[in-house]
Amino acid sequence: MSTIESSSRMKTNTTDISEVLIQYIYGIADNALILGQRLSELCGHGPNLETDIAGTNIALDLLGQTRGYYQYAAQLKGGDTTEDDIAYLRTEREYKNVLLVEQPNKHFGYVIARQFLYDMFHVMLLEKLQNSQDPTLAAIAKKGIKEVRYHQRFSSDWIKRLGDGTPESHEKIQEAINTLWTYTDELFHMTEADKKAVDMGVGVDASALKGEYYTRVRELLDASTLEVPEMKWFQKGGKQGIHTEHMGYLLADLQYMQRTYPGMKW
Amino acid sequence: MSDKEIKNLEEIFEQRIARDEKIEPKDWMPEKYRKTHIRQISQHAHSEIIGMLPEGNWITRAPSLRRKVALLAKVQDEAGHGLYLYSACETLGISREELYEQLHSGKAKYSSIFNYPTITWADMGAIGWLVDGAAIINQVPLCSTSYGPYARAMVRVCKEESFHQRQGFEIMMKLAQGAPEQKELAQDALNRWWWPSLMMLGPTDAESVHTEQSMKWKLKRKTNDELRQQFIDQTVPQAELIGLTIPDPDLKWNEERQSYDFGEIDWDEFWQVVKGHGPCNKERLDARVNAWEEGTWVRDAAVAYAEKQEEKKLKQAI
After folding, report:
1. Do B302 and A161 lie within an 8 Å CB cutoff?
2. With contacts defined as CB-CB under 8 Å, which chain B residues touch A258?
C-alpha cells in the first residue's frame, strides 16, 4: 500500500470515529438539553418556592452537562462549529433525544414522573459512562453523576410523597406514570452509533441496563403505593429523530432568536 | 401595660435605633414599627417573585446556551431572595400563607416595574442594567437598616443584585456593539425601560407618604428624589460608554450642581400602573395565583405524606 493510500484511509477512519462519537454524544446530550428546556419553562411557576428552586437547579445541571457534551462535539466537528450551532441550528429530525424527555409539563405529576423515569436511567448510564475509554466523556460523566444522583433523590422523594400523599395526588401521579410508561422502553434501544460506540469502548450498552432499571423503578413504585403499569406496546422514534408533535413547538421557542437573527453573537 | 410604661419602652426603643443597635424579633417594638416592616419587607419579597415572571418569559428563548444558563440562574436567585425575605417577614409574626393571600388578593403591592412586558431579548439586558441598578441604589442602604433579619437578608440580596446588574449591562453592551439590528434592539429596550426605571425609585418627596417615619427607623437613608438623582448620574455615563442614547431630550449636565438635569416624569403613568392598570398587572397576578392554586394538591400531598411518616415513626417507637 502506498503512503498516500494509507494516510487517506487513516483520515477516513478518524472521520468515521469522530462521526460515530458525535452521533453518540447527541444521543446522550440531546436528552439533557430537551429535558433542561422543559424544566426551564416552569421557572417561576412551581407549586411553592422551594420546589421552584429545586426544579431550576436540575435544569441548570442538565444544561451545564449539555454544554460539556456539545463543546466536545463541536471540537470533534472542527472548523468554526460552536456549542450553540449544535444546540440551536439542527432540524427537528437531527435531534436524537428520547420521546420521554420532550413530553410536556401537563401538571406537576407529569414533571415528577418524567424526571423520575429519566433519572433512574440517567444514573445507571453515567455510572457506566465514567468508565468510557474516551477521557472527555468519562470526565463529563464523573462530574455529572453527582448531580444526577441528587436529581434521582429529588424525583424519587416526590414520587413517594405524591404516591402516598392524598388520594388526589395518588391518582394524579399514577395517571402520569401510566401515560409516560410507554416511552420508557426506548431508553434501552441501541442505534447504529450506539453499537459502534460500544464496540470502540467509548459508549455504554444501554440495552444491558434494562432489567435492572425496571427492577429499581418497580421497587420505588411499590414503596410509593403505586401500580406498575402493564404494557405491551411502547413508543419509539426519538433516537431516529422522529419525534412527537410536541417537539416542534419546543424547538420553535428554543431556536427563535438564532433563526430570527442568523449568524449573530449574543 | 400602662400608657406610661409603653411610652417608656418607646423611648428606650427610639434610643436603641438612634445608637444604630439592631432590633431583633424577640425585642419589644412599637406596633407601628412591626406593621411598617411587614408592609415593606413583604412588598419587597413579592417584588422578587413577581419579578421572576418578566424574565422567566425569555428563558426558553435565550439566544445562546451561556445566556440561557445565566438567565435561569438569575431568576433562580430571585426566588432565593423571595425566600430570605419571606423568612425575615415571618419573624414579625405573620405566616407565609397570609403574605401570599395579601399578594393574591391585590391587598399587598409589589414593584410596579414588573407590570411592563418583556417583548425582546434586549429587555433582559435592560432589566438587569436599569431595573437591578435602580434596585441596588434602593437596597444598599437597607443593609444597615434597624431590623436585624431584614438587614442581614439584604446583605445577601445586594451581593447577588450587583452581579445581576453587571450581567445585564454586559448583555446590553454586546447588543450595542453587535449588528445594526442588535443595536436597534438595545436602543429600543432602553427607550422603553428608562422612564419606568426612574419611577421605580418612588414618587417625588412631596408625594411620598412614608418617607419621614421610614427615615427615622433607618428603613430609608435618602429620599426618593436623592436616590433617583444618584441613579441618573450613575447610569448616563454607562449609556454613553456603549453608545446608546437616553430617551430624554431635556437631559443635560448641570455644572453647578455636578449632576444631570432631567425631564419631567409622567407621574400619571406611574399612578395608573400602581393602581393596577399597567400593561401586565393582570397577567402577573394571574400567573402567581394560578401557580399557587395549581400547586395546592402538591403541597397537600407533601403535608399528608409527612404526617403519615410521623405516625409510622410513633407506632414504631411504641
Report:
1. yes
2. 63
Instruction: Give the tens place of pLDDT for each residue, B7-34.
Output: 899 999 999 999 999 999 999 999 999 9
Indicate the SS3 state at residue A244: coil
pTM (global) more than 0.90: yes
ipTM of the shown complex: 0.94
Q: Report the domain count for chain A.
A: 1
Q: Does residue A124 sit within a domain?
A: yes
Tell me whether residue A70 is in a domain.
yes
User: Would you call B97 an interface residue with chain A, using a CB distance cutoff of 8 Å?
Assistant: no
Q: Let me know: does B166 contact B188? Beta carbons within 8 Å.
A: no
CB contact under 8 A, A52 and B181: no
Tell me whether B297 touches chain A (CB under 8 Å). yes
In a domain, A265, yes or no: no
CB contact under 8 A, A51 and B182: no
Q: How many CA atoms lie within 13 A of A108 on its CB side?
A: 31
B76 and A56 within 8 Å at the Cβ level: the answer is: yes
- Residue B252 pairs with which residues in a beta bridge? B261
| A120 or A12, higher pLDDT | A120
A111-141 per-position pLDDT tens digit:
999 999 999 999 999 999 999 999 999 999 9
Top residue of A56, A58, A88, A154 to mutate, by most chain B CBs within 10 Å, is A56
* Domain containing residue A227: 3-260
On the question of pLDDT at A263 being above 60, the answer is yes
Task: Tally Cβ neighbours within 10 Å of residue A198.
Answer: 17
Q: Is the model's pLDDT at A1 over the cut of 70?
A: no
In a domain, A137, yes or no: yes
From the list A37, A47, A53, the residue facing B79 with the nearest CB is: A53
Chain A contact for B12, CB < 8 A? no
A67 vs B contacts (CB less than 8 Å): 65-66, 69
Label residues A86-123 b or e (16+ Cβ within 10 Å = b): bbbebeeeebbbbbbbbbeeebbbbbbbbbbbbbbbbb
- CB atoms closer than 10 angstroms to residue A79: 7
Compare all CA atoms of chain B with the CA of A63 and give the residue at the minimum distance. B69
Q: What is the mean pLDDT of residues A159-165?
A: 98
Instruction: Determine whether the interchain pair B298/A162 forms a contact, defined as Cβ–Cβ distance below 8 Å.
Output: yes
Residue A63 and residue B65: Cβ atoms within 8 Å? Answer: yes
Which CATH number fits the domain that encloses residue A229?
A: 1.20.1260.10
Buried b (16+ CB within 10 A) or exposed e, A227-251: eeeeeeeebeebbebebbeebeebb
